Amino acid sequence: MSAMEVDSDVSTVLATLRSETENGDLINLFYELEDYYERKLWHQLTLSLEEFYRSKASAGTSVRTRIYDLFVSQFSSKLNQIQVVDFLLASLEDLDLTKEENVEVGIEKLTELQQNIRTNYLKTNSNSHQVEDLEKSIEDDEAVVYVALQLARFYLYSNQRETQLKASDEILDSLNKKFESSYEKVEFQAKVNAAYYLTNCQLYKIREDYNHYYSNGLLYLSAIATVNKSANQTLDIVEQQRLCYDLAISALLGDKIYNFGELILHDILKSLQGSQWEWLYNLIQFLNAGNLEGFSKWLAVGKDKAPILEAHEVFLQQKIIIMSLLELISLKPATNKVLQFKEISDFTGAPLNDVEHLIIKCFSLGLIKGYINQIESSLIVTWLQPRILNLDQVKVLYDHLNKWDSGVEKLGNEMLQNGGSIWAAN
Question: Residue limits of the PCI domain (predicted)?
Answer without folding.
Answer: 212-386
